Amino acid sequence: TKENISKLKAKFGDNYTEALQDLLYRMKTGRRRPMGSNKLTNNFFNWIADSVGAIMFFNSRSALLQQISLTNFLNTTDNNPIAASVAFANQKQFWKDYAFLFNSDYLKQRRSGVKTDVNADEIARKAEEGGNIYRNTVAVLLKTGFLPTQIADSNAIALGGSAFYRNRINRYIKEGFSNEEAEKKAFLDFQEISEETQQSSRPDRISSQQASPLGRIVLNFGNVLMQMNRRAIKDIKD
């Protein structure tokens, strides 16, 4: 409400409330573009998205670098390096958990919509829409070109998350939860860490800068760094 916005503005300032309103707009509409139906501006955004798609077309370097993110699930408590190693040593259970996470609805959805990148997700949406046949054909090809990065992204999340998932289940069981409850809670924790540390195109996970016209040009290859920096600053403030 306007009253709540005024209170938030008084407490946190203009930048906070503007970013919050932008965030709510993106969540309600599912749009990452701040503008409406301006043809020239939208065509320019299409060109930017397609240019990124061309650069990322079967980009093996990007796919390889995705694997670094498997360390995101390590912590200093229940999934510290020693605990993670113990979970990995149980190979039968580890690969069972890996298969479960890799084939979960969460990672399937992330792969199907190319939810790892703002521009890639727009290309994927365009490929499913009717209209300009040439434009849609190009979009389908560019979406296919993201395949190595998509698979590498899911692999890194499932590989890094398997030990975390199993150790978190064990922790919740020790705290008195049933096996089923522990699995549900552990999966939610796994998903939350994944969304916070992996690059995401989710409307509520990108910043106002990333969604802005200037940000879409300047930050095309800095999105994951922006996300990690925001998380680190938040952790330091907390």
Structural commentary:
By secondary structure, the chain is mostly helical. 74% of the residues lie in helices and 0% in strands. It has helices at residues 2-12, 14-29, 39-55, 60-66, 81-89, 91-102, 105-112, 118-128, 133-145, 147-174, 179-197, 208-211, 213-218, 223-237. The chain is globular and about 55 Å long. The mean pLDDT is 82.
Task: Please count the helical segments.
Answer: 14
Average the pLDDT over all residues and give the rounded result: 82
- Which sequence of SSEs, written as H and E, runs from N to C? HHHHHHHHHHHHHH
Shape estimate = globular
Q: Kindly estimate the percentage of residues that lie in beta strands according to DSSP.
A: under 5%
Reported for the largest beta sheet, the result is: none
Question: How many angstroms does the end-to-end distance come to?
Answer: 27 Å
Topology, number of strands? 0
The radius of gyration is: 20 Å
Alpha-beta content class = mainly alpha
Q: Name the poorly predicted regions.
A: none
Helix content: over 70%
What tags apply to this protein structure?
238 residues; mainly alpha; 14 helices; 74% helix; globular
Topology:
Layout: H1 2-12, H2 14-29, H3 39-55, H4 60-66, H5 81-89, H6 91-102, H7 105-112, H8 118-128, H9 133-145, H10 147-174, H11 179-197, H12 208-211, H13 213-218, H14 223-237
Task: Provide a compact summary of the structure.
The protein is mostly helical.
